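Researcher: I'd like a candidate sequence for this fold, 134 residues long. If you have to choose between options at a position, lean toward the conservative one.
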């Protein structure tokens, strides 16, 4: 069960708008922040919402609920789209960083190790010969 968001005076004001059919846009705007509990409270409290007069109000109430559901769905879709955009942007930033083997420092270090191994080969060859002869 949801909590009520509005006061009794706000409910009374909206109930008075319902009695005037020309106030349909004010009714939609006036109940934009209402929860389901607020609508239930207004239906229980309002003199217009008894069983025989409920049919006269059912249309606006249902259209308000449908508009609210559609607005919530649009907001949810926009939020998901925004979140997906953030994820894609972060992945693209990661892809812009080159792999560590592509950086010039790696290749300089690799070349230095190769040349050091070539320079050390005579010493290594002597060690290998000494180990194999004894």
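Model: Candidate sequence:
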């Amino acid at each position: 069960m949801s909590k009520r968001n509005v006061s009794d005076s706000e409910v009374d004001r909206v109930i008075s708008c319902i009695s005037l059919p020309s106030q349909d846009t004010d009714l939609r705007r006036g109940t934009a922040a209402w929860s389901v509990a607020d609508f239930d409270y207004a239906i229980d409290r309002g003199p217009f919402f008894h069983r025989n007069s409920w049919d006269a109000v059912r249309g606006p109430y249902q259209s308000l609920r449908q508009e609210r559901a559609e607005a919530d769905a649009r907001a949810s879709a926009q939020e998901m789209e925004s979140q997906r955009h953030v994820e894609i942007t972060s992945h693209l930033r990661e892809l812009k960083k080159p792999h560590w083997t592509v950086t010039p420092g790696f290749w300089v270090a690799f070349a230095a190790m190769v040349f050091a191994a070539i320079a050390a080969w005579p010493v290594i060859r002597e060690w290998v010969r000494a180990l194999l002869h004894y």
